[in-house]
Amino acid sequence: MTRGRVFLATMFGVVFSAAGTSAGRQDRPALSPPKPPEAKLAAVLEKARDYCLRLDRAALDFVCREQVDEEINQASRPSISGAIPPVPGQFNGGRLIQPARVDDFRKTRLVYDYQYRRKGGEVKERRDLMEKNGDKVAKTDVEPETRHFKFRDILFGASGLLGAGASLRYEYRVAGEDKVRGEAVVRIDCMSLPALAGRQLAGRATVRVKDGAVLRIDWDPRSFGGWQEVQSVADLFGMKPQVESYTEYAIEKSGVRFPSYDYTEEAYSGGGKVTFVRSTTTVKYIDYKFFTVETIIEN
Questions:
Q1: Quick one: CA dihedral 155, 156, 162, 163, positive or negative?
Q2: Tens digit of each residue's pLDDT (9 = 90 or more) over 80-105
Q3: Would residue 150 count as lying in a domain?
Q4: In this predicted structure, what is the pLDDT of residue 56?
Q5: Cα–Cα distance for residue pair 259/247, rounded to 1 Å
Q6: Which pLDDT value is given to residue 11?
Q7: Is the dihedral of CA 47, 52, 53, 57 positive or negative?
Q8: Per DSSP, what are the bridge partners of residue 112?
Q9: What is the Cα 288 distance to its own chain's centre?
Q10: What confidence tier does 15 reach under pLDDT thresholds 50, 70, 90?
């Protein structure tokens, strides 16, 4: 993705509570009927588009630390459950768990200094590697050195799903309603139109009702680059992919939400086999320093 999430080719791979319309008693004003789901979805989508417009046009200048933890299982295969043949007069048969090599997660920690500046049509973005596994490092202007999963442009994930022109590429559906820290949110499934499936990111956005801000995105991993490699691994194991990936935007400045946490787990399950976690990638965004966050929209 230009704005995207990519599995590396080297991988072996509410329901709305329609609390009925009440005409009310004649001695008090009638309550306004609740908006139908379609109207509520349209209203939230409009606010989300306005929010994405502010995000896309904002003058931004900030730095933060990007702490990346990647864990890769050195075990080459999952455990397998197989049949044990019966032994006449002694044993009626059963199932045997053939364990994989003991799970051995090799952990790599990378700490980057991430800088982003966009002002007056000029964009400067840079990632400098500061630490690797606790050792000081000095590598400037680099890409993340993760082996199983790449992440890019996390800040603008909302714009890809809900921003200008997105309605021409996606169809939307309300997945549920909830509250986050006491504020009403709507969870919206952002599904690629059939002609674009597999060519752009898709997922479920948690949108704050009052202003359309996107608080979290649960990504559909089938829309990631490199998904075919994941499917190939699953086919080899005779299992099904069970991949979880999401981004949280818990840092707010001048009406713009900034990423705070990003997580992806690559796992496989199914049949008589236990769930096999092959890799996890966790990114924490900390120590933000904001120099400019201006969200004025030009008319």
A1: positive
A2: 655 556 666 555 556 555 555 567 88
A3: yes
A4: 93
A5: 7
A6: 38
A7: positive
A8: 66, 129
A9: 21
A10: very low
Q: How far apart are CA 116 and CA 114, in angstroms?
A: 7
- State the amino acid at position 147 in one-letter form: R
| Whole-prediction pTM | 0.82
Predicted pLDDT at 26:
37
- Write the burial class of residue 31 (CB in 10 Å: 0-12 exposed, 13-18 middle, 19+ buried): exposed
Q: Which helix (DSSP H) or strand (DSSP E) does residue 119 occupy?
A: strand 105-119
CB atoms within 10 A of CB 43: 14
Q: Quick one: how far is CA 172 from the chain centroid?
A: 17
Q: Which of 166, 183, 265 is nearest to 219 (CA)?
A: 265
pLDDT tens digits, one per residue of 186-243:
999 999 999 999 899 999 999 999 999 999 999 999 999 889 999 999 998 889 999 9
Please check the confidence at residue 60 and state whether its pLDDT lies above 80. yes
Query: Are 297 and 57 in contact, with CB atoms under 8 Å apart?
Result: yes
CA distances from 172 to 57, 175, 192 (A): 24, 9, 9
Q: pLDDT tens digits, residue range 35-53?
A: 556 888 999 999 999 999 9
Which domain range does residue 273 map to?
35-294
Q: How many residues in total does the chain contain?
A: 299
Domain assignment of residue 12, yes or no = no
| 95 within some domain | yes
Cβ-contact 187, 174 below 8 angstroms:
yes
Please state, in angstroms and rounded to a whole number, the distance separating the CA atoms of residues 6 and 229: 11
Does some domain include residue 4? no
Cα 121 from Cα 109, distance rounded (Å): 34
CB 262 within 8 A of CB 151: yes
Q: For 105-138, how does the pLDDT look when each residue is reduced to its tens digit (9 = 90+)?
A: 899 999 999 999 998 878 999 999 999 999 999 9
**Separation CA 187–CA 246 (nearest Å):** 13
Please count the structural domains in the chain.
1
